[in-house]
Amino acid sequence: MVSGLMTRPKRREVLMLGALSGALLGVASLPGPLGVLGFVALVPLLIAIDRGAAVVNAGLAGFLAGLLQFGIGFGFIPFAAVGGGPALLAVYLLGILMLATGTAGIAATLAWTRCYSRALPLLIAPGGWIALELLRSQSWIGIPWNHLAYGLAEHPALIQSASLVGLYGISCWVASVNAGLVACRWLAPRHTAALAIALGIPLVPGLRTLPEAPAASLRVAAVQPDLSEQRRHREEWFHPNLRHLLALTDQVIGERPDLLVWPESAYERDLAPGGDAFLSAIGSGFGTSFVTGAWRKPHPGSMLRRNAALMVDREGNLVHAADKVHPVPIYERA
Predict the structure, then answer these.
(1) Which residues contact 206 (CB under 8 A, 6 or more apart)?
(2) How far apart are CA 233 and CA 81, in angstroms?
(3) 140-168 per-position pLDDT tens digit
(4) Residue 268: DSSP 8-state
(5) What's the pTM?
(6) Minimum mean pLDDT among 19-23, 164-168, 328-332: which range?
(7) What is the DSSP letter of 36?
(8) What are the φ/ψ torsions at residue 166 (nearest 5 degrees)?
């Protein structure tokens, strides 16, 4: 028996609410200032569950929400200039189908717990959402994007608490605001006020006054060649690409930057554990520290290369080298 409700919403209504949540989640994940929509994106789906949507209907609504969220958020993939043929489109379609099943699972679970308590699904919704984000961020899945917290990247005042709670703490806060808004539909006024205060606490670090000017600055020169996909990651184009990159670097090195930055895959050579003589020569020749992307084998005898970043100081010494934590599935694993 569903407590506190006279009738359950019909399937069509539940699906429409799920679609609205998916659209809001997708738009919130796009570059730009609309990431704040994440604070209300889950509300339609949670309202359907709060009203007692059947488990199956809630699962379908969650699946539809996931399709729209990831379909919009990863909508650039079919148009990316990577590879050829239908493979990229197939990966995109299969990927959003797989990711949408996770959203369907959490929506169905919340609807099932609604049968026992009206408050229970709203209490566990933030944790369930963070579990989904953590799950798809694991290396064996490797899709750590489109988290709720990323939508606030262009709103520095809203993400200052990340220094205390990290990325997933911010995502949990955003999901909690969504659940809190739904709970306000039936909470008593005094409880609503207490909830608003509790949910507003993460905003406090953003209220501090920032200095008008930094005490020190770093002049960074970023060099990004415009190379077609046909010229990237190909052995025969390595030297022409490198010459082009060096020529572009010569145009900015006269401005005496403190740090020079080259892009991913700028130096596609097997690197020795202690560094690379040519990269050391570049660092000492330019007289500035620089960071470059490179492909390297993570350990001796490895058959695969990993997308890595190297830092070389102005004396030509390798300061640091690190492999990308979350390589793009398939594309960056070989």
Answers:
(1) 156, 157, 158, 159, 160, 161
(2) 13
(3) 777 888 999 999 999 998 999 999 999 99
(4) -
(5) 0.80
(6) 328-332
(7) G
(8) 75, 180
